[in-house]
């Protein structure tokens, strides 16, 4: 800055003082123009030698930093898009797996339900069969007991009628054979109809 200041002072010193009525704003003064062009050329040369390279380097560094930032943003955007697609694929896979698990659980529940129904039916049938057997056994016991009672009553009645005490075992066999012939006849009639 010291050099340009000195050049400016020398220009003032060299510049002629206009005469009192001769020079105006638009008057052409060649020596002032020469010094202005000379100072402008020297200042331009100094700026081009020292200032412009530093300014251009900083502008180029800024451009490179911006280009790198743009490339980094593009790379980040591409990575984010890839990550988004990966997450979307994972979510879709998880959704499909959840659907499969739900379908499997429904199938297992249906199978368990069918097994339970089948088991319940088997238990019901077994209970019915057991009840029929028990009823049959109890019926047979009741019939046997009724026969015994009927035999005892018939013997007691016959003893009173005859007024004689007959042999109990012999009479019992006789009455039981009679009842057996009666019950077998009744069974034949019910099975025939």
Q: What is the alpha-carbon Rg in Å?
A: 66 Å
Structural class: mainly alpha
> Which percent band covers the strand fraction?
under 5%
Note poorly predicted spans: none
The amount of helix comes to over 70%
- N-to-C terminal Cα separation, in Å? 142 Å
- C-alpha geometry: rod-shaped
Largest sheet entry? none
Helix/strand layout:
Blueprint: H1 2-14, H2 30-162, H3 168-192
Detailed description of the structure:
- By secondary structure, the protein is mainly α.
- Helices cover 89% and strands 0% of the residues.
- It has 3 helices and no strands.
- The chain is rod-shaped, with a radius of gyration of 66 Å.
- The chain starts with a helix and ends with a helix.
Q: Top keywords for this entry?
A:
3 helices; 193 residues; single chain; mainly alpha
Outline:
It is built from 3 helices and no strands. It is mainly alpha-helical.
């Amino acid at each position: 800055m010291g050099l340009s200041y000195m050049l400016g002072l020398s220009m003032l010193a060299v510049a002629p003082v206009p005469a009192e009525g001769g020079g105006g704003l638009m008057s052409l003064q060649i020596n002032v123009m020469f010094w202005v062009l000379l100072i402008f050329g020297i200042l331009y040369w100094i700026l081009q030698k020292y200032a412009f390279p530093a300014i251009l380097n900083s502008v180029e560094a800024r451009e490179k930093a911006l280009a790198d930032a743009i490339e980094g943003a593009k790379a980040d955007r591409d990575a984010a898009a890839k990550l988004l697609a990966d997450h979307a694929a994972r979510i879709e896979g998880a959704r499909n797996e959840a659907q499969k698990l739900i379908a499997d659980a429904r199938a297992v529940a249906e199978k368990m339900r069918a097994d339970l129904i089948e088991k319940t039916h088997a238990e019901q049938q077994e209970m019915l069969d057991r009840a029929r057997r028990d009823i049959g056994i109890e019926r047979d016991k009741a019939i046997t007991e009724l026969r015994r009672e009927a035999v005892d009553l018939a013997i007691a009645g016959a003893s009173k009628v005859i007024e004689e005490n007959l042999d109990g075992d012999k009479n019992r066999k006789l009455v039981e054979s009679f009842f057996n012939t009666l019950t077998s006849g009744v069974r034949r009639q019910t099975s025939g109809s």
